Amino acid sequence: MKRRHVVDLFDAFGAAPLRVWLAGGWAVDAVVGRQTREHGDLDVAVDMVDLPALRALLGERGFVVTTDWTPSRLEFTAPDGLVVDVHPVTFHTDGSGSQAGLDGESFHYAAAGFTVGSIDGVTVPCLSVDQQPRFRTGYEPRPEDLHDMALLEDIRSQHAASAPLPRRRGTFERTGNHWWWRNGWSPGTRYLTWHLTFEGESALHRAAERAGRTLADVTGVDVVPPEWLHLTMTGVGFAADLDAEAIESHAESVFARAAVLPAQLLVFESVFLYEEGLCLSADSPWLHRLKVVQADLVRDIGGPVADPGDVFHPHVSLAYFSAEVDEGALHDALDEADLRPVTVRASHLSLIELGRDDRMYTWRVVAQRVLGG
């Protein structure tokens, strides 16, 4: 089983859409963020409700059932020898799940046991670092199991050794709604802007997922899904006002100038509460140099000129507020999330067409390059 096979299958699962998570050895590689060993098959956990649809999808791709121990486990084999080992999970109202064992026992999946990781730079759903060891009980560990468990223990040790992120608060009287319409904006408006986006950054995605699970219960908080995490850099202008050829030339100029800057690791090392949201903060001289480059080139095509008094504070928002929120409840949620420093090893420099309808920032990528890989 190769990385491309995993990515291809999970693309199909997501398009269906099916609730499927990586398990087994590939799940370990997903939370590590790189392939660490060869894999003979692909283990997945699937919502029992989606099992019939999963069987149909695999059947359309030529897989046949070679082992059927429903409801405990099914094994599918393709004509080219690819094997998918399926573990059905029955979910409960609290978000936890259970998988039937072969001898009447039941295997527990915690509600927090489902997260995201990265395979070949692509974000994929997977079992969490804490859930995965439970997947390896009831049999004598093989060499590959020992390999996987050592990696999981290393990740857990690193998390335990790092101190919780410090928290800072901006200067404001009370929190408030982020989603008021700025000058020039209305429903359907699209804006061209430079962002760093974080496709495949499993550590950052895991932190956002962990925070999101606890922050979602706080009234007035709109959690940012991992796929929409971003670090705002430099605005270019409203899409309706810009010429496509000029934008293409501008993007190539930015990429060329960015390529000569020595990209560095980006470490998010504090949580910052501002008037309209909550974010992870980082700082980097490299990012400040990149912003200056972008601002110069945006000005060259007649884009907005930054106010000299503006201060650039690199951050990734975890949530925005739609109303005044209870700050005590926010801190309780952050206590439970127990966020630790997060290191980004590769960021995507993205020129995007941004929208902010329905209390969420979403976008279409216009041009993109990978930095710091």
Fraction of residues in helix: 25-40%
Count the E strands: 19
Regions with pLDDT < 50 over 5+ consecutive residues? none
Q: What structural class do the secondary elements suggest?
A: alpha+beta
Tally of contiguous helical segments: 8
Shape: globular
End-to-end Cα distance = 25 Å
Please compute the radius of gyration using only Cα atoms.
Answer: 22 Å
* Percent of residues in beta strands: 25-35%
- What's the order of the H and E elements? HEHEHEEEEEEEHEEHEEHEEHEHEEE
Largest sheet: 7 strands, mixed
Average pLDDT reading: 91
Explain this structure.
By secondary structure, this protein is an alpha+beta fold. The protein has 8 helices and 19 strands. It has helices at residues 3-15, 24-32, 51-60, 143-161, 202-215, 244-259, 285-300, 327-337; strands at residues 20-23, 42-47, 64-69, 73-77, 83-91, 97-100, 106-109, 114-119, 122-127, 167-169, 191-197, 221-223, 230-238, 266-274, 277-282, 315-321, 342-344, 347-355, 362-371. The strands form 4 sheets. Strands 1, 2, 3, 4, 5, 6 and 7 form a 7-stranded mixed β-sheet that branches. Strands 10, 12, 14, 15, 16 and 17 form a 6-stranded mixed β-sheet that branches. The mean pLDDT is 91.
Condensed summary:
This protein has 373 residues and is of the alpha+beta class. It has helices at residues 3-15, 24-32, 51-60, 143-161, 202-215, 244-259, 285-300, 327-337; strands at residues 20-23, 42-47, 64-69, 73-77, 83-91, 97-100, 106-109, 114-119, 122-127, 167-169, 191-197, 221-223, 230-238, 266-274, 277-282, 315-321, 342-344, 347-355, 362-371. It is built from eight helices and 19 strands.
